[in-house]
Design brief:
Blueprint (H helix, E strand, L loop, with lengths): L1 H31 L9 H22 L8 H22 L5 H26 L3
Helix pairs in contact: 1-2, 1-4, 2-3, 3-4
Length: 127
């Protein structure tokens, strides 16, 4: 279990390092354009961005791989679809983005994170 936990912590840190700045940039852009009134404070934006992956990542790492599927690609697709939907509703429920924008940003940011994660795993064996 210690190895699995260490692997998850590594992947979680990788995900957060990519997604926090992207979500913060999206929120800041939305605040500047007047599309949302909050959060204006950078610390709150960082905490909000951290929360999105903190909600989804443990489920993606520990639960979704236990659901039977035909291939690794199918499992990754399920995991990413879960992340996109849950994170979109997270930002929508907290009234940061309207539903359309929340789905857009969640899709873009999770696709970026997943792509770079898979590329890093292929190139460096990490995360």
């Amino acid at each position: 279990m210690a190895g699995a936990l260490a692997a998850w912590i590594s992947a979680f840190a990788f995900t957060q390092a990519l997604e926090i700045p992207l979500y913060v940039a999206a929120v800041r852009r939305s605040v500047r354009r007047g599309a949302t009134l909050r959060p204006v404070d950078l610390a709150a934006q960082i905490a909000l961005a951290f929360g999105a992956s903190a909600v989804t990542h443990p489920i993606i790492w520990f639960l979704i791989p236990r659901i039977p599927c035909d291939s690794y690609v199918e499992m990754v697709a399920r995991a990413e679809l879960f992340a996109v939907i849950v994170e979109a509703f997270y930002f929508y429920a907290l009234e940061v983005f309207n539903l359309r924008r929340a789905l857009f940003w969640s899709l873009v940011i999770n696709a970026t994170s997943a792509s770079l994660g898979l590329l890093s795993r292929w190139a460096f064996g990490w995360p």
